[in-house]
Amino acid sequence: RRGVWRSESTNFGRTWSAPEATSLLNPNSRVAALALSNGMLAVAHNHHRRVGNHILSNLTVSVSSDRGKTFSELAELEVLRRSHARHPNVPLLRPMVHRPAMVQSGCTLFVAYAVSYPWMSPAEKAELAEPVDDRLRAELSV
Predict the structure, then answer these.
(1) Rounded to an integer, what distance in angstroms lies between the CA atom of residue 45 and that of residue 99?
(2) What end-to-end distance do the CA atoms of the chain give, in Å?
(3) Residue 18 and residue 116: Cα distance in Å, rounded?
(4) CB 48 within 8 Å of CB 57
(5) Which residues of 109-138 are buried (b: 16+ CB within 10 A; e: fewer)?
(6) What is the pTM of this model?
(7) Which residues, in sequence order, are CB contacts of 32 under 8 Å at separation 6+?
(8) pLDDT digits (tens, 9 = 90+) for 61-72
(9) Nearest CA among 16, 17, 73, 19 for reference residue 48
C-alpha cells in the first residue's frame, strides 16, 4: 500500500512500534513532518497514489491531533490539473511538486517545496520563471 506510515517510540528512539498505515496518500515520495507548538502534528505530502512517469503533484498539508493516528486536511498548496491520470505508460507533461520542508514561527507555518519541469528545455523553463518568493513559500495560519 502506498502512503504515509507511522511508528512510535516511548524510550527516546531505542525501540519503535511496528509501522502502521495512516490515511495519508503519498506516491512513495518524500514527506515533511513537524510537531507544532500547539501539540498537533503537521505533514506535507503529495496527496495521491500514482507512481511512475515523474508524477509528484497535489502537495497537501494535513494535521493530526492524536499523534498521527488520524489526519485532516489543512491546506492544498498545489493542485495540478489531471494529476489523477490512470495509464502508467502515458507521458504526462506537468510539473513535479516535491521535496517539502516546513518550519513554524509563532503561529505561522512556512512550507517550502520544489516545482520542476523535467520535460522542458532550459529556454522553456526560463520563460516560466516566477519570482522565487512567490513559489517557495506558502504561509498558513495554524
Answers:
(1) 9
(2) 30
(3) 35
(4) yes
(5) bebebebeeeeeeeeeeeeeeeeeeeeeeb
(6) 0.73
(7) 43, 44, 100, 101, 102, 111
(8) 999 999 999 999
(9) 73
